[in-house]
Amino acid sequence: MKRTFNPWFFVILIILGVVVFNQFNARPPGSEISYSTFTNLVEGGKVAEVVIEQNTIRGELKAETQVDEDGQTRAIRSFQVTTVEDPTLIPLLQENGVSLEGRVPSPWPGLLFSFLPIVILIGFFWFVFMRAQGGPSQVMQFGQSKAKTYGRENKVKTTFDDVAGHEEAKQELKEVVDFLKNPQKYLRIGAEIPKGMLLVGPPGTGKTLLARAVAGEAGVPFLTVSASEFMEMFVGVGASRVRNLFEEARKASPAIIFIDELDSIGRRRGAGIGGGHDEREQTLNQILSEMDGFEKDTSVIIIAATNRPDILDPALLRPGRFDRQVTIGLPTQREREQVLRVHVRNKPIADDVNLERLASATPMFSGADLENLTNEAALIAARTGKQLISWTDFNEALDRIVLGLRRGSLVPSDKERQILAFHEAGHAVAFASQPDLGHIRKVTIMPRGGAGGFMAPLSKEEMFFSRERFQQQLVVAFGGRVAEKKLTGTISSGASNDLKQATDMAKQMVFDLGMGGEEFVAWGSDQGPVFLGGEISRRKDFSEETARELEGEVNKILEAAYSATETVISNNWVAVEGVARALLERETIEGTLIEKAFERAREGMSADEITRMIVAEVDAAERRMAADAQRAAEADRQRRAERPAPTIDPRPASEGPRS
């Protein structure tokens, strides 16, 4: 183990050495007496010797003597006196035979204690400075770029084949690759490739991965740096690092510079209370100058990534700098399926895993979220000792990510479980009655996170939502409250989140989408999109009378949806009752069984028959799952048995190989 030298240990040793040296070299101070008492003792012949040092006289008496001073009597043998201006002192001492010695005080203690605090402060700041710069070897290199360079020796191996989805973005970036490979093709005709490309999108959508794929496809040096690494506590260091970064890129040209999290230094200059930030603005000015200053260099391409393009300085986005913005949005359902195939290609997947169904169950998931989902499913399978990752593991992983961990300590009463079962059954049957909404993934009454139970849909992915689509979603939202009320004759707090979602949806219909009484105006709601430059809040720009009219339209939509939900639940109460009883027995039901139960109820099957059918299907699925797990375990044991045993050398470990 390598030991590092700590300079503070050396400083402490010096201080302790000085203290110990002074303690051993200093004579005992003796009793403090007045100058008059001292002269009396000299005249009386009682003083044996004295030592005169600057402002102090130290001495020894011939024998212990009683001294009266300030009304007190003390017995002293050694003494100490503060000197005064007295020209008769030396003759007096000589007349009385006192041994006299004069000493010049050492200047080192005074100098040491005068300059030691300054030395300690300098050492402290030097130590902090070295730690901040990464050690002594980096002290004089704080103006150098911290970019990681991938060249011919450690070239980037990522290609566009490793990036699932984002076909439009990849097509845009392939033009950059083609220019880096064949620049004369564009220069002959007078075309100039964009100097910079800005990748814009939410976190986790693959912006950095796409930049690496461009470098891997082009086969050119790739310099990557986070924008926050330009910033330092010293003004001017960031600009120096930017200059050094572009110098390195020009030396290795053609090359790609990738700046991640550009918004950390590319914020609008002069924004905010109290003006801007000197270091950040100098760094930004240097980037602007390097990208489109006096030097024209088309062999270095800058790719930057950010999820906050709304706060970037306009000078960054003008032509000649970041000419193009490529939006890397959340993947569509088809792209999510492709991303899932990439992340499961090295994982053993069971036959019951349907990636298309899993992609439809993960709306608004980014690529990073999907990678986390597959990894979480693998962890769950390994924790239970499985050899294959099944659909149940993906189901559990998805529920854990979206809702949280199971709350095994929360045990509802029998009455609460019954209300919860009918509540979730109401949601499920209301959803099944609206075929245009899609399919159901599962229904459960097992508490998880902040929810007592939930119904997980597999929604269809559409570009536009009609008014009828919103009304159908409102029916599903009210399904739990209506079923609960029909069972108990009263209402509870269990539907609080459903009511909030329904109210927000109705407000969006009226305020934003013109789906209320006036379909030609959008007044704007209180909440707006935060991403891609939207405002967090909007100003209310209509009168109180208009506000009352809009609130009335919202109430009309909610009342109509609630009335339609009551009709749906009443007409399909047999299905609700059958599903609820099955939930009380098995707690979790797959969505395909809910849809099957809904159809059987319409064909005239009773609630008891529906319950028995669902329970039998759930039990059969569990038996199949257990059999599959047993077969997988048996196959694994067989593979282990057929594997040849390792050869063991009988010689001691210390004995070398024999020729």
From TrEMBL:
Zn(2+) binds at residues 423, 427, 498. Binds 1 zinc ion per subunit. Acts as a processive, ATP-dependent zinc metallopeptidase for both cytoplasmic and membrane proteins. Plays a role in the quality control of integral membrane proteins. Its main location: membrane. Residues 625-643 have a biased composition (Basic and acidic residues). Keywords: ATP-binding, Cell cycle, Cell division, Cell inner membrane, Cell membrane, Hydrolase, Membrane, Metal-binding, Metalloprotease, Nucleotide-binding, Protease, Transmembrane, Transmembrane helix, Zinc. Its EC number is 3.4.24.-. The gene is ftsH. The chain crosses the membrane at residues 108-129. In the central section; belongs to the AAA ATPase family. Belongs to the AAA ATPase family. This is ATP-dependent zinc metalloprotease FtsH. One of its GO terms (cellular component) is plasma membrane. GO terms for biological process: cell division; protein catabolic process; proteolysis. InterPro entries: AAA+_ATPase, AAA_lid_3, ATPase_AAA_core, ATPase_AAA_CS, FtsH, P-loop_NTPase, Pept_M41_FtsH_extracell, Peptidase_M41. Pfam families: AAA, AAA_lid_3, FtsH_ext, Peptidase_M41. The keyword Cell membrane applies. NCBIfam families: FtsH_fam (TIGR01241). Homohexamer. Its cofactor is Zn(2+). Residues 193-332 form the AAA+ ATPase domain. It is a multi-pass membrane protein. ATP binds at residues 201-208. It is found in: Cell membrane; Membrane.
